[in-house]
Specification:
This protein has a domain of about 220 residues: Rossmann fold (3-Layer(aba) Sandwich). Helices cover about 40% and strands about 15% of the residues. It contains eleven helices and 13 strands. Strand 1, helix 1 and strand 2 form a beta-alpha-beta unit. The protein starts with a strand and ends with a helix.
Length: about 325
C-alpha cells in the first residue's frame, strides 16, 4: 500500500486521481483550500477508511507537516487555473503557483517524499514548432501581458522541482498536461468543453472565443490519471519532464459540433445559428495573445512507461454531456 498526498485533491483532476489511488489500495490524504476545488467532488469518499481530507493551503508549512509522512508520494496539483482568472488576477496566479510549489518541495525534502508536479502545455508559449517536445525552446510574450504570467509561473515551478532533484536529491517528476477534460470539470474558469455542454443543454448558443479555428488536443481525465500513476511507480522518471496528452488535433469549431450532435442526438449541418463568436479583446481584454495550435510529442512517456491515450474524444464528450445533464437536475 502506497501512502499518497494529493494537493488540490478536491479539484477536477485531483478527485479522479484520488479515486484511482483508493481503488488500487493506497491510502490517500487530500490537502485543498477549496478555492478552486469543491467538497462535492470527493463527497462519496468521506466514509472511505483510507481517505483523509485536510482543508489547508499548501503554502502553509504547518499544514503540510500535518499530512506528509516519510516515504509518501506527493501529487502536487494545487495551482491557479483557467485563462479568465489568470488574465484578471495575475498576482494570485504567480503567488499561488510559485510559493505553493516552493512550500511543497521544501516539505518533501524534509520528509523524503517523491513529488509529481503538475505543469502545463502553456509553458511552450507561442512556439510554432510542432509537435512540442519536452526539450524544445519556449517562446513567451512580454511581461506587460498578464496572459503569460501563468506559463511563466509554471515554468518557474519546473525549474524549482528540477533544482530540488539535482541539488538536494528530491525525486521530483514534472508532467505537462494538454487540455485535460472529463466529468466534474467546471466551466467557471473558462474551460471550453464543460461550457459548451452546459450551453448546449440549455439551448443557448455556444460561445467561441476567436474564430474557432484554433486547435487543441483534448485528453480524457481517466487517461491522464493512468499516466500519473505510471510515472509515480517509475523510479527512472525522477528528474525528468513528460508531456501527457492526446495527439489528435481538433478545432474549437469541431468540438462545438461534437457537443451539439451529442446533446441533440443527430447531425448538425450548419453551425451558423448555434454558435456566437466573441473576440479575444472582449473576452480577455486588449492585447490578449492566443496560441493557435498545441500538439504534444508523447514518445518520451510512451518509451518510459508505455503510456498512450486510449479514450476517444467522442466518448469523453458523451460522458461530459451526461455529467452536465445530471448536474442540472
Amino acid at each position: 500500500m502506497v501512502k499518497a498526498v494529493v494537493t488540490g485533491g478536491a479539484g477536477f483532476i485531483g478527485s479522479h486521481l484520488v479515486e484511482a489511488l483508493l481503488t488500487r489500495g493506497d491510502e490517500v490524504t487530500v490537502i485543498d483550500d477549496l478555492s478552486a476545488g469543491a467538497m462535492r467532488n470527493v463527497a462519496s469518499l468521506q466514509t472511505h477508511p483510507r481517505f483523509h481530507f485536510v482543508k489547508g493551503d499548501v503554502a502553509d508549512q504547518a499544514a503540510l507537516e500535518r499530512v506528509l509522512q516519510p516515504g509518501s508520494i506527493v501529487f502536487h496539483l494545487a495551482a491557479a487555473l483557467g485563462v479568465e482568472r489568470v488574465v484578471r488576477d495575475p498576482l494570485h496566479t504567480i503567488e499561488t503557483n510559485v510559493f505553493g510549489t516552493a512550500s511543497v518541495l521544501q516539505a518533501a525534502k524534509r520528509f523524503q517524499n517523491k513529488v509529481l508536479l503538475a505543469s502545463t502545455s502553456e509553458v511552450y508559449g507561442k512556439s510554432t514548432q510542432l509537435p512540442f517536445r519536452e526539450d524544445d525552446d519556449v517562446v513567451f510574450g512580454p511581461s506587460s501581458r498578464s496572459r503569460w504570467s501563468y506559463a511563466a509561473s509554471k515554468l518557474v515551478d519546473e525549474f524549482l522541482a528540477l533544482a530540488y532533484h539535482q541539488q538536494l536529491g528530491v525525486p521530483a517528476v514534472v508532467f505537462r498536461l494538454f487540455n485535460t477534460v472529463g466529468p466534474r470539470q467546471s466551466a467557471q474558469y473558462g474551460m471550453v468543453l464543460p461550457r459548451f455542454a452546459r450551453q448546449a443543454i440549455a439551448g443557448e448558443r455556444l460561445t467561441i472565443h476567436g474564430d474557432g479555428r484554433q486547435t487543441r488536443c483534448f485528453t480524457d481525465v481517466a487517461d491522464v490519471v493512468r499516466a500519473l500513476i505510471g510515472l509515480a511507480d517509475c523510479d527512472a522518471a525522477a528528474g525528468q519532464v513528460f508531456n501527457i496528452g492526446s495527439t489528435r488535433q481538433v478545432t474549437i469549431l469541431e468540438l462545438a459540433r461534437m457537443v451539439l450532435e451529442e446533446v441533440n442526438k443527430g447531425p448538425v449541418d450548419d453551425l451558423t445559428e448555434r454558435v456566437v463568436f466573441v473576440p479575444y479583446r472582449e473576452a480577455y481584454g486588449t492585447g490578449f495573445e492566443e496560441t493557435m495550435n498545441r500538439v504534444p510529442d508523447i514518445s518520451k512517456i510512451q518509451a518510459s512507461i508505455g503510456w498512450q491515450p486510449s479514450i476517444s474524444l467522442e466518448e469523453t464528450v458523451r460522458r461530459v454531456v451526461e455529467s452536465a445533464r445530471r448536474a442540472g437536475r
